[in-house]
Amino acid sequence: MMEKLSGIYGHSNVSERLAQAAKSGKLFNSYVFEGAKGCGKKTTADLFCAAVMCKNKEKNLPCGECDACRKVFSHNHPDVIYVKRDDGKKTIGVDNIRENVVNNVYIKPMLADKKIFVITDGSDLTEQSQNALLKILEEPPEYASFIIITENSGFLLQTVRSRSVVLSFLPVADSVTQKVLFEKTNGKYSENEIRFASRFARGVPGKGLEILENEDFTRLYNETVKKMIALFGKKNTVSDFEKFLNDEKEKVDLVIDFMITFVRDCILAKKGCENLVVCENYLVDIKKVCESVSTKTLAKLSELILEYNERLKYNAAFVSATMDMLLNMREQIKA
User: Fold this and answer.
1) N or C: lower Cβ tally within 10 Å for the chain?
2) Which residues contact 135 (CB under 8 A, 6 or more apart)?
């Protein structure tokens, strides 16, 4: 059995690979950590940096007890440099890379044998800043390594990806998510609340934590599901749904997630996979919906919701985008 980084739940292949590199001291020039927000990429980056800097290599890596580990975990280690967006900026520009990386990378490590640059918002790197980074990745000092964290490595230039080891963080099992949530919340929530949040998290523990800590979660969940069920009824409830979405405009991302989850549950129930349904407290209503529409219609509804989400990301007019989606959904249901 290969050694793993201590403190990582799930992601066995990633953990084993990084533990081996930390133990041997043979790091690649650049790593790309890709995966959904909340899947553990930043936590893993901290643990890996601590393992590399750790003074107790004979113990579990990282030991978490030595001065080097404590410095990394408090983000105070001089040889671990975090590169992020400047306040008020939407991207990581070339000036940021020049100041924090180019002007720093050729200064030898102060306390360790290695120097690691952690770029926490890799998707926000501009093309110009990536090209500035690329010049270093082509011939970096032997002691320097990079970790680029992103939700999708496709946002990076192919030339950057080709000089990096891309490690994908896939969704973890529900049991793993529940274990993380229990430990992170120190018994603050009941077993049912943890189970409910882990189902919605769909293998992303950080998302489950956000769910538990969001006071509006349960209210929005129930209201959204009820609005979705009503949309499949005989009455035209488009205006009610539109008003609800407008009232909850600031939390529309969460509402959209509930809408997609409900449609997904309907598809699962239609296929006989009721044990996988997330909105299990509405299973009776879900079964009734399944009797009235086809799987093809449900798939089309899912597409409409996702298109709506994309339109909002690109700053489409909220009211018109909302009404377009709801009217198209209602038309599909009636058809």
Assistant:
1) N
2) none
Give yes or no for a contact between 311 and 328, defined as CB atoms under 8 angstroms apart: no
- Predicted confidence at residue 227, as pLDDT, reads 96
Low-confidence ranges of the chain (pLDDT < 70): 1-2
pTM: 0.77
Please list, residue by residue across 210-237, b when 16 or more beta carbons sit within 10 angstroms of its beta carbon and e when fewer do: bbbeeeebeebbebbbebbbbbbeeeeb
Q: Output phi, psi for 296, to 5 deg.
A: -60, -40
Helix (H) or strand (E) segment spanning residue 333: helix 318-334
Element (H, E) at 115: strand 115-119
Enumerate the H helices of 104-251 as residue ranges. Answer: 127-138, 158-162, 174-185, 191-201, 205-213, 217-231, 238-247
d(Cα 68, Cα 88) in Å, to the nearest integer? Answer: 32
Rounded to an integer, what distance in angstroms lies between the CA atom of residue 244 and that of residue 259? 13
38: left (phi over 0), alpha (psi -120 to 50) or beta: left
d(CA 7, CA 118): 19
Structural Rg of the chain based on CA atoms: 23
Rounded Cα distance between 280 and 274, Å, is 8
Q: Is the N-terminal amide bond of 62 cis, ω within 30° of 0?
A: yes
Report d(CA 169, CA 191) in Å as an integer.
Answer: 26
pLDDT confidence of residue 91: 92
Strand 80-83 and strand 144-150: the pairing is unpaired
SS3 state of residue 257: helix
As a whole number of Å, the end-to-end CA separation of the chain is 56
> Letter for the amino acid at 90?
K
Q: What value, to the nearest 5°, has the Cα angle with vertex 86 and ends 83 and 90?
A: 105
